[in-house]
Specification:
Number of domains: 1
Largest sheet: 6 strands, mixed
CATH architecture: Roll
Number of helices: 4
Strand content: over 45%
Number of strands: 6
CATH class: Alpha Beta
Distance between the termini: 42 Å
CATH topology: Nuclear Transport Factor 2, Chain: A
Structural class: alpha+beta
Strand order of the largest sheet: 2-1-6-5-4-3
Amino acid sequence: MSEINDAVQIVSNFLEASMAPDPVRAATFMSADVKITFTGGRVMPNPQAITAFNGARYTWVKKALGNFDWMDRGDHTVVYSNGTLYGVWPDGRSFSGNRYLDRFEVRDGKITHMDVWNDSAEWILEPGVSKA
């Protein structure tokens, strides 16, 4: 397997563990000093914080993985994952088709940076948008 495919596999393994949710296993794919930023500029110190944040925002949430795109940046590989979120809001309404885009930087076999964007904030503020 090439180094680039290794980076995509690391991200895929991380996402699988995150959706379980298994934040302890997810953490094994991240560097000790990982930088995680969610929508709205929310900084997360570790995968456990991601699980806690998602636990407050959703009754449950999963990703329907779309494509992985990558690029070699010399000292690291950038991996993009896109697809949609599906799950249940805290008020019991189910949802699907909620677009997401995650950007990862992988160095020396570990995720060192993760940025997350999705439609959740807009859908929470204006539920009708999700039906458009």
